[in-house]
Amino acid sequence: MSIQLAIFVSGRGSNMEAILKSIQDDELDASVELVFSNDLNAKALETAQQYGVKTAAIANAGLTRAEHEAKIQELLDTISFDYIVLAGYMRILSPKFLSHYRDPRGYYRVINIHPSLLPAFPGKCAYEDAFNYGVKISGITVHLVDEQVDHGAILAQQSFPRLADDTLSVFKARGLAVEHALYPAVLREISNNGIKLDNLARESIET
Ligand code: GRF
Predict the structure, then answer these.
(1) How far away, in angstroms, is 176 Cα from ligand 1 center?
(2) pLDDT tens digit string along 34-85?
(3) What pLDDT shows up at residue 79?
(4) How far apart are CA 152 and CA 147, in angstroms?
(5) Which is nearest to 139 in space by CA: 165, 113, 164?
(6) How far is the CA of 51 from the centre of ligand 1 (A)?
(7) How far is it, in rounded angstroms, from Cα 46 to Cα 193?
(8) Whose CA is nearest to atom 6 of ligand 1?
(9) Count: domains in the chain
(10) What's the confidence (pLDDT) of residue 197?
(11) CATH number reported for the structural domain that contains residue 67 in this entry
(12) Which domain holds residue 47?
């Protein structure tokens, strides 16, 4: 079954592009109905336009979180989509916003990618934090979004090593390559089989 996506970005958009490429290459049965950014100058918007995808941006500066989210919600009301896919979206989504996108089965139809093996190293600087901690193995997590930051039922994780002579940028590049394969793969699984609740930590899904 084809799935309809709204992708949220704030910056570079390399994960967004990996998803768009995989749709273009017929590896993922999905359509991107909208790419939304809170940053009007995000490079991701330009890239999305090159793929012929509809884009929109609403700056959060000068707005409260509630005001900003109300505008986003208004925008989302104009399209139809199955999932919001966060791809480097640097804003926290409030419980009120999330509640509008609740699946009858109890979870929110919002997916995120995070560059660590959650629950280790949540937060904005996961690559740096894992690297500076001196981990030998790190990884990437794709998860459902819940009311807490970088938390929620895990859909997939993939590890990658930190090698002895890695610099931070080599370590990050290795992780990013994993991100670009994992995010489309998880979406493909959802497109083919839906979200399998049995495979999720059910206790982390509010019912
Ligand atoms: C990625 O590392 C992603 O895991 C994190 O933010 C970064 C976004 O990169 N949430 P990009 O904009 O997709 O290139």
Answers:
(1) 8
(2) 999 999 999 999 999 999 999 999 999 999 999 999 999 999 999 999 999 9
(3) 98
(4) 8
(5) 113
(6) 19
(7) 32
(8) 88
(9) 1
(10) 74
(11) 3.40.50.170
(12) 3-199
Contact 14 CB / ligand 1 (< 6 Å):
yes
Quote the mean pLDDT of the chain.
95
Residue 204 lies in a domain: no
Would residue 188 count as lying in a domain?
yes
Q: Whose CA is nearest to atom 14 of ligand 1?
A: 14
- Residue 205 covered by a domain: no
| Residue 206 counted as domain residue | no
pTM recorded for the entire structure: 0.95
Task: Assign residue 165 a region (left: φ > 0; alpha: ψ between -120 and 50; beta: otherwise).
Answer: alpha
CA dihedral over 4, 47, 73, 146, signed as positive or negative? positive
Of 5, 191, 207, the residue nearest 106 (C-alpha): 207
In the chain, beta strands by DSSP E: 3-9, 30-37, 55-57, 83-86, 110-114, 137-144, 154-161
Q: Among the atoms of ligand 1, which is closest to the Cα of residue 12?
A: 12
